[in-house]
Design brief:
- The protein folds into four domains: about 5-20 and about 175-320, Molybdenum Cofactor Biosythetic Enzyme, Chain A (3-Layer(aba) Sandwich), CATH 3.40.980; about 20-45 and about 140-175, Alpha-Beta Complex (Molybdopterin biosynthesis moea protein, domain 2), CATH 3.90.105.10; about 50-135, Beta Complex (Molybdopterin biosynthesis moeA protein, domain 3); about 330-405, Beta-clip (Beta Barrel), CATH 2.40.340.10.
- The protein has helices at about 5-15, 155-165, 205-215, 230-240, 260-265, 305-320, 375-380, and strands at about 20-25, 30-35, 35-40, 50, 55, 65-75, 90, 105, 110-115, 120-125, 135, 145-150, 170-175, 180-185, 190, 200, 220-225, 245-250, 270-275, 285-290, 295-300, 330-335, 340-345, 350-360, 360-365, 385, 390-395, 400-405.
- A hairpin with a 2-residue loop joins strand 24 and strand 25 (about 360-365).
- Helix 1 (about 5-15) crosses helix 6, helix 3 (about 205-215) runs parallel beside helix 6 (about 305-320) and helix 4 (about 230-240) packs across helix 5 (about 260-265).
- It is built from seven helices and 28 strands.
- The protein is of the alpha+beta class and about 400 residues long.
- Bound molecules: adenosine monophosphate and magnesium ion (MG).
- Adenosine monophosphate (AMP) binds near residues 204, 257 and 304.
- Adenosine monophosphate (AMP) binds near residues 248 and 252.
Length: about 400
């Protein structure tokens, strides 16, 4: 049986990032860029006012007060028509282009319009202005030709904004992988059905779908496959058209655990079966090599917590890598055990826990977990506590690695 680290290394070596594709900006959030992006514009495109006020000749205000003739009013979107000369001013709003001749803007709060004058006049007080005050010069934020984003950067909302500003409505990026999901088991019925005696609802299908979507994959839920070679083979063939096929159930040692055999019959090469891990030992992994692109196939154990742990340890990093992200998996931290824990057996264990942070103290307690079929306890968890293999009592106060859920 291989170790967790060996298994992770193998799955990551099999995961090859697909060629980048043009993606519309509206679909680009959280994708990784595959090109350097140069700006085709200066921003701002003109010297612009950063306040509402009057565009003036700064020298007019050398004494702190002035009485100026108002030439025109420009709001954002307008262009100025008159040159500002000494003794005059143009009323200007935030974002509007600075008229020629003006070299500063005085804020509206420092001015008062003279209603009594025949021609519109403005009184300005208390404002020895610097040249350039309240003006953002053209190209201050970015210049034509400048590289503003680099390949391998993740596109966050702010990058979407910047790309829109420079007019890039399509970018080269690594697309989301297509992930087919197939839950297997004669006992399974869809979640909207009442199980007959002996049956249970398919909870793994919806859970894995949620995990895939959370990890940035595009899910294709193939529903439930019965434990029957022909029926499974048909669904498997459909699933192999995806980048990744995730099955649940049918990979242990039971009489109806047909998944490995059916996958091999469909031409999927077995890479490993079983990992030194609790929960999740029966994990199966293989690769279907095909001209249209390889499909990575994970047979997750049927018990829900085993399925989730295997997804987090192996499938999530693979999806991260396919998307061009660092395959870092769940975030690793440390906690101080608040409860004693008896670890038994030769398999490293991921145990549901609750991390609570009070000031500098990071306490973690184990939950009363009933094993890999108990997904209810996991809903109370916010982390998985890692216990290394070997029989040992972990006393409270021990520092343990934890993985945030
Ligand atoms: P298996 O790996 O097929 O032997 O299944 C192991 C256990 O997980 C059995 O108790 C199954 O009933 C249960 N199980 C399998 N598939 C699912 C599923 N999709 N949703 C919930 N439980 C499942
Ligand atoms: Mg089964």
């Amino acid at each position: 049986m291989i170790s967790i680290d060996q298994a992770l290394q193998i799955v990551l070596e099999s995961a090859l990032r697909a060629a980048p594709e043009p993606v519309p900006l509206a679909d680009a959030l959280n994708l990784v860029l595959a090109e350097n992006i140069a700006s085709g514009i200066d921003s701002p495109p003109h010297d612009k006012s950063t306040v509402d006020g009057y565009a003036v000749v700064a020298a007019d205000l050398a004494t702190g007060t002035a009485r100026l003739a108002i030439l025109e009013e420009i709001t954002a979107g307008d262009v100025p028509h008159s040159k500002v000369k000494p003794g005059s001013a143009t009323r200007i709003m935030t974002g509007a282009p600075i008229p020629s001749g003006a070299d500063a803007v005085v804020m509206i709060e420092q001015t008062q319009i003279d209603e009594t004058a025949v021609r519109p006049m403005v009184e300005v007080f208390d404002s020895p202005l610097r040249v350039g005050e309240n003006i953002m010069p053209r190209g201050t934020s970015l210049r034509v030709g400048e590289t503003v984003l680099s390949a391998n950067q993740t596109i966050r909302p702010i990058e979407v904004g910047l790309l829109a500003e420079i007019g890039r409505t399509e970018v080269l990026a690594f697309r989301r992988p297509q992930v087919a999901i197939l839950a297997t088991g004669n006992e399974l019925v869809p979640a909207n059905r009442v199980p007959a005696p002996g049956q249970i609802r398919n909870s793994n299908g919806p859970m894995i779908r949620a995990l895939v979507e959370q990890a940035g994959g595009v899910s294709n839920d193939l529903g439930i496959g019965r434990d029957e070679k022909e029926a499974l083979a048909t669904l498997v063939r459909e699933g192999l058209n995806s980048d990744v096929l995730v099955l649940s159930g049918g990979v242990s040692a039971g009489v109806l655990d047909l998944v490995p055999e059916v996958l091999e019959m469909a031409g999927v090469e077995t890479v490993f079966h079983r990992v030194q891990l609790k929960p999740g030992k029966p994990l199966w992994f293989g690769v279907k090599r095909q001209p249209s692109g390889n499909c990575l196939v994970f047979g997750l154990p049927g018990n829900p917590v085993s399925s989730l742990v295997c997804f987090e340890l192996f499938v999530r990093p693979v999806l991260q890598k396919l998307r061009g992200h660092k395959p870092s998996g769940l975030e690793r931290q440390e906690g101080i055990l608040a409860t004693e824990h008896a670890q038994q057996g030769q398999r490293p264990t991921y145990f549901p826990g609750v991390l609570s942070i009070e000031g500098a103290r990071r306490e973690v307690r184990t939950l009363n977990w009933q094993g890999s079929a108990d997904q209810r306890s996991l809903t109370e968890a916010n982390c998985l506590i890692y216990f290394p293999p070997g029989d040992r009592i972990f006393t409270s106060g021990t520092v343990v690695p934890i993985f945030l859920l």
